[in-house]
Amino acid sequence: MAPADPAIRTTPFETPYPDYDVLGKWDSVSFNDATRRVVADRLQNVPERRFFDEPTFALLRAVIDVVLPQPERAERDRIPVEAWIDAMLYENRSDGTRYAGAPGKRAAWTAGLAGIEHEAHRRHEKGFRALSADERHFLLACIDAGEADPAAFDGIDAKSFFRGHLLKESVKIYYAHPFAWNEIGFGGPAAPRGYLRLGPDDRDPWEAREAKMPQKIRGLP
């Protein structure tokens, strides 16, 4: 089993590991068959939109592109975080817990995204996708600071949605993708390979080596 296109290489975001490619270890002991199946599925089978309608899905993508911008990637190499959020909601997957009085995950995402769009219209008299990059950043920063109109979020706490749902799920999905592993020098799951050199400043031969220090961090100006 091989990834969809083993030749795919992302142009790395400014990272200490500009030449690292975790997929280059595809046929090595770094991956077992179970890991290969999971990673290949992640690369080849991006879920189709099924939960959100098209305008809401486009809004979700626009918000994700502020939280986790990927300007260095061509569209074919972009990590489609919004697709897996949509799939999670369509399949009604949950970790089984939520705060007392909080709505279920589907209701929270529906109300949260509608609230972001409402807040854009309230502040700028246009939708979120029509805002400039600076306006988008500022609006989400205001929501994160608890400065959104509570009535717009249909009974959910805007800040809790932004941090507890949108940020949490987006980052979790993003860093489950091998393209993101390249950015941080992560070699993928440790099975069956394991780690042998555990002392300070020790590294195993298969681990990534830093070439330079980054000048910026993804998602920050």
Report strand %: under 5%
Average per-residue pLDDT, rounded, comes to 87
Can you give the helix content as a percent range?
Answer: 40-55%
Instruction: Look at the helices and sheets and give the structural class.
Output: mainly alpha
What is the overall number of helices? 7
Write down how many β-strands occur, each being a DSSP E stretch of 2 or more residues.
0
Organism: Jiella sonneratiae
Protein name: Gluconate 2-dehydrogenase subunit 3 family protein
Pfam family, one: Gluconate_2-dh3
Can you offer a commentary on this structure?
This protein has 221 residues and is mainly α. The protein has one domain (1-97, 163-221). Helices cover 42% and strands 0% of the residues. It has 7 helices and no strands. It has helices spanning 33-44, 54-67, 81-90, 105-124, 133-144, 158-174, 178-184. The N and C termini lie far apart (39 Å). The model is unreliable at 1-12 (pLDDT under 50).
Features:
mainly alpha; 221 residues; 7 helices; 42% helix
Which secondary structure elements does this structure contain, and how are they paired or packed?
Layout: H1 33-44, H2 54-67, H3 81-90, H4 105-124, H5 133-144, H6 158-174, H7 178-184
